[in-house]
Recover the amino acids of this structure.
């Protein structure tokens, strides 16, 4: 389709953000742009951002929904700090997102929506129109397009009502941006025809959406809006077959794969909660893989059912988000005491309490490790990217079943909804998960330990191995209820050591960047992409900065202490007030400092660079922790910024 | 416990364990345990295929005393754990043992949902109208005004009827019996034979904290006047002389009548196990209001079991889409090749 006479500039990477009312279909536009770019062969990273309310008041800033995508011809790890092209479907979207656009960036606005009423809804002062404000017109290239009118004219002959016609505006805008980046339309057309045409049985709607998409595209070609278009060539990637994947999709597939590798039935027990529900949705649509899903009456029932599944010898998994993890705490302890396998996927969101349901945070680490009564050790893993949710779920299931221990996986809202390309693994090359169930009544004792201290996983249906488990302390070997003082002490140490023994299987860490030197960054979970990018940039600037990223939070990789010794200073960036930092300080007795962002958003690379520079230049001061504000970090006490 | 038990005929004592039973001497739980073991033997249950799941409370120690698989879980959650067991292996015979505190207070939510789903579980609720294990606080079934350690001036909570809840929660089998009643064995057997969630309330004497709470239902002499043994298709007659009955009065309210001139058997209510409204009505009859309390099977209907429907959906999905392979799982159709 690149028949345009206009010049095309090749560019390495671009960041596009679609923003509009939560009913404007921005998530769909963004997802389609992502799919198209992934299928085209770019590396992609995305950041969807939506309000917690399903339909916040239309036209208000609170109701703005956004979708950011970074696509590139080289390896990228973040959705991008600054936006190159913003599509603002109304004044509220403009207001909410304009400050993220880089100076000189393009802002496409649907000028039809910049009416008096809508400006007022966005809480702009009476008589003020930001599109006329020199502060913006000089800083950005603002492109006014009457999207509503052009879309309505285009679809006037379709016979659809005004409402349905209006709903196609997102595709019109998407078409325009496809033209701007010289993208093919076929992926989206195929999607529209399948989704609206086949699944929803609304061929008229499918047709109208395709028409709107094409109209936007051709408008770009004919109108003199942009001086040039851009082209982001294919990324060089390892040979293979790829697809785009979100963290929650990856988790669902990882769990099915784990069950398959272990020759177990996956039974996923969950109660709907943002942002974990998509795992339940995905799995409940994949029943032909033998997956059983159980939508329980509450979070507690969900985890208890999963424990019942484990007791009976299948793969019991529950998924939730922070507040749900609070509710599951008692039952998780039951699994610790009964020493049964259990996988708990916690897709973290802003807390405490209901907090920020649709925003990301890493603030459940200490809860996962310690948020239960008694000494209750379990395994905690955290994926580092959306695609890594696949691998980590397989590992979680393997550890849980082979070591008869609960495993908590700490995903987060950013990973769950964010997407990246994923090279399809070869099922034949995957290692089976060996799981043993004892059958010999002569040698069986419910709490007889194997060498690594795990307990035999005997299951109902096995003659002669009838035994009783429960939450009361159990006697070593026999598993009878025991209140004996020495036995309790012994069993408590065993439970702890059993988890620590798993460290033997955790691969050693390899620092990224400088293998030793001035500064070590220790990250965990979903911040991997931003930290990687910052460390790469620091390396390019000749700085002596290395980074390790923890996917195993408990037990930690065995060589972390060795690595820490190779650097002068340690920085722990986290999306919380310093939970990993607390662990690192107490465990290694070092003066680790924290960059702590608690805004419901991932780190910007710029923020990390500021923190790195403050550490390297000795300008950080005595503060244990700093927080960014307005995209930058300065050496001031976090609370004094307000 | 020998491997050869797969072919042997089991007796009640084969369902015992080596654990000492630790209920208070004289506790009603002993009688239930004995009958349960007998029923297991009589219905030909296999130890290895039977699972007892419980929550927390005196009654919830039950699994430790059954020579089957057992899970003494956490307070109130036994129905959820047991649901997981049935999802993982629908072939197992799964019993849930709970109490009035465990099942109706902390675990009320789970009880309601396990019943409406009709998971094929047998749920025994030992109702002693008191918290025993925590040493004597009032429970959700304690009568109004009951003086306990936590209600020295008398409980101001209205008690609830476990059976009304079971009927309202769409249970497919609802019954009541008494720990020392000969009918206990029959009711447990009927519950075992039911396909679906069977809910059985068992009046149980806590002889330490609430002794004689059910005297009216256990006293040999008094009980015939105080209990109504339900029989499907039969008129509701009770009393030592079998001369009293239940009928609906002009405003369709139940009343106790004496058979004789002007009151024939045909005027009485006839029990119908498939009548949900009747089951509810029966569940409201209280001894304290001058009614006999109905015993036996209140309600019984055939319905699909949850864990079977789950399997059916998998079968349906497989016949429509074929058994999934990992290759197909990974490739959602939107893939692309990097050469
Ligand atoms: S406290 Fe009551 S219910 Fe509990 S064991 Fe003793 S007598 Fe039985």
């Amino acid at each position: 389709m690149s028949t345009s006479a206009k010049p095309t500039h090749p560019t390495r990477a671009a960041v596009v953000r679609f923003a509009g009312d939560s009913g404007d279909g921005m998530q769909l536009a963004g997802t389609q742009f992502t799919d198209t770019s992934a299928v085209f062969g770019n590396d992609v990273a995305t950041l969807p951002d939506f309000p917690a309310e399903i339909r916040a008041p239309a036209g208000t800033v609170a109701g703005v929904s956004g979708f950011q995508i970074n696509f590139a011809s080289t390896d990228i790890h973040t959705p991008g700090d600054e936006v190159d092209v913003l599509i603002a479907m109304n004044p509220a979207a403009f207001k909410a997102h304009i400050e993220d656009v880089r100076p000189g960036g393009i802002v496409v606005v649907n000028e039809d929506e910049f009416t008096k009423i809508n400006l007022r809804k966005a809480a702009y002062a009476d008589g003020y129109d930001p599109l006329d404000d020199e502060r913006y017109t000089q800083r950005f290239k603002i492109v006014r397009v009457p999207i509503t009118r052009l879309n309505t004219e285009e679809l006037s002959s379709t016979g659809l009502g005004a409402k349905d016609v209006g709903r196609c505006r997102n595709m019109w805008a998407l078409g325009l941006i496809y033209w701007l980046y010289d993208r093919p339309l076929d992926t989206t057309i195929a999607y529209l025809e399948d989704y609206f045409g086949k699944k929803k049985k609304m061929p008229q709607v499918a047709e109208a959406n395709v028409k709107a998409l094409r109209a936007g595209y051709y408008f770009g070609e004919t109108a003199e809006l942009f001086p040039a278009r851009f082209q982001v060539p294919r990324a060089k990637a390892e040979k293979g077959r790829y697809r785009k994947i979100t963290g929650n999709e990856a988790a669902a597939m990882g769990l099915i794969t784990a069950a398959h590798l272990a020759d177990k039935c996956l039974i996923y027990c969950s109660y709907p909660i943002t942002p974990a529900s998509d795992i339940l949705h995905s799995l409940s649509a994949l029943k032909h893989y033998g997956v059983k899903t159980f939508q329980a009456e509450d979070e507690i029932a969900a985890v208890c059912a999963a424990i019942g599944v484990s007791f009976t010898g299948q793969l019991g998994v529950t998924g939730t988000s922070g507040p749900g993890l609070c509710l599951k705490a008692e039952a998780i302890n039951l699994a610790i005491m009964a020493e049964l396998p259990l996988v708990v996927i916690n897709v973290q969101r802003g807390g405490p309490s209901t907090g920020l349901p649709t925003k990301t945070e890493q603030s459940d680490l200490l809860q996962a490790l310690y948020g239960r009564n008694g000494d209750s050790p379990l395994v905690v893993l955290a994926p580092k990217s959306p695609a890594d949710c696949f691998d980590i779920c397989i590992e979680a299931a393997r550890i849980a079943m082979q070591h008869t221990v609960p495993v908590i996986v700490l995903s987060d809202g950013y990973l769950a909804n964010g997407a990246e390309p994923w090279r399809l693994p070869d099922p034949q090359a995957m290692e089976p998960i060996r799981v043993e169930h004892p059958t010999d009544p002569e040698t069986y004792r419910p709490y007889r330990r194997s060498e690594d201290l795990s307990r035999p996983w005997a299951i109902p249906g096995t003659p002669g191995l009838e035994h009783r488990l429960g939450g009361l302390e159990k006697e070593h070997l026999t598993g009878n209820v025991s209140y004996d003082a020495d036995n309790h002490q012994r069993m408590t140490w065993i439970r702890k050591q059993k988890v620590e023994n798993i460290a033997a299987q955790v691969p050693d860490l390899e620092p990224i960047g400088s293998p030793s030197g001035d500064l070590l960054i220790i990250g965990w979970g979903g911040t991997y992409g931003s930290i990687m990018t910052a460390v790469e940039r620091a390396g390019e600037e000749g700085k002596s900065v290395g980074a390790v990223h923890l996917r195993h939070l408990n037990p930690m990789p065995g060589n972390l202490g060795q690595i820490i010794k190779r650097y002068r200073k340690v920085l722990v960036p986290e999306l919380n007030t310093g939970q990993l930092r607390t662990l690192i300080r107490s465990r290694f007795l070092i003066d680790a400092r924290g960059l702590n962002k608690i805004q419901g958003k991932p780190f910007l690379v710029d923020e990390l660079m500021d923190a790195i520079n403050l550490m390297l230049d000795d300008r950080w001061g005595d503060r244990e922790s700093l927080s960014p504000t307005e995209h930058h970090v300065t050496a001031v006490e976090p609370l004094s910024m307000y | 416990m020998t491997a050869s038990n797969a072919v042997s005929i089991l007796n009640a004592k084969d369902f015992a364990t080596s654990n000492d039973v630790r209920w208070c001497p004289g506790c009603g739980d002993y009688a239930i345990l004995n009958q349960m073991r007998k029923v297991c033997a009589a219905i030909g249950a296999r130890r290895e295929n039977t699972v007892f799941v419980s929550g927390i409370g005196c009654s919830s120690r039950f699994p430790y005393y059954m020579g089957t698989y057992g899970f003494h879980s956490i307070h109130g959650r036994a129905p959820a754990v047991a649901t997981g067991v049935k999802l993982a292996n629908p072939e197992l015979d799964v019993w849930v043992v709970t109490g009035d505190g465990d099942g109706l207070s902390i675990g009320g939510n789970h009880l309601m949902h396990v019943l409406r789903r009709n998971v094929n579980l047998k749920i025994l609720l030992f109702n002693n109208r008191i918290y025993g294990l925590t040493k004597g606080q009032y429970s959700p079934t304690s009568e109004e005004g009951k003086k306990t350690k936590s209600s020295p001036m008398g409980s101001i909570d209205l008690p609830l009827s476990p059976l009304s809840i079971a009927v309202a929660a769409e249970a497919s089998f609802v019954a009541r019996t008494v720990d020392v009643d000969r009918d206990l064995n029959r009711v447990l057997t009927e519950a075992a034979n039911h396909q679906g969630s069977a809910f059985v309330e068992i009046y149980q004497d806590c002889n330490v904290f609430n002794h004689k709470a059910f005297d009216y239902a256990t006293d040999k002499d008094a009980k015939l006047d105080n209990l109504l043994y339900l029989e499907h298709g039969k008129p509701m007659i009770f009393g030592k002389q079998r001369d009293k009955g239940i009928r609906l009065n002009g405003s369709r309210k139940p009343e106790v009548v004496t058979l004789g001139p002007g009151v024939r058997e045909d005027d009485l209510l006839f029990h119908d196990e498939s009548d949900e409204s009747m089951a509810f009505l029966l569940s409201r009859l209280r001894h304290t209001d001058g009614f006999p309390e109905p015993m036996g099977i209140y309600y019984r209907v055939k319905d699909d079991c949850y864990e079977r429907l789950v399997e059916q959906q998998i079968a349906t999905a497989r016949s429509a889409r074929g058994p999934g392979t990992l290759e197909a799982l990974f490739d959602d159709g939107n893939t692309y090749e990097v050469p």
Observations:
- The longest helix of chain A spans residues 203-222.
- Chain A has four domains: 8-231, 243-429, 436-505, 512-641.
